[in-house]
Amino acid sequence: MIDRVGLADFLRTRRKALQPEDVGLARGSRRRTDGLRREEVASLCNMSADYYSRLERERGPQPSSQMLAAIALGLHLSLDERDHLFRLAGQNPPARGGAGDHIGPGLLRVFDRLNDTPAEIVTELGETLRQTPMGVALTGDLTRYTGPARSIGYRWFTDPATRQRYAPEQHQFLTRMYVSGLREIVTLRGPDSRAAELADLLLARNEEFRQVWEKHEIGIRPHDVKHFIHPEVGPLELTCQRLVDPGQSHSLLVYTAVPGTESYEKLQLLSVLGPQLRPAEG
Question: What residue ranges in 30-135 does DSSP mark as E strands?
Answer without folding.
Answer: 119-122, 128-131
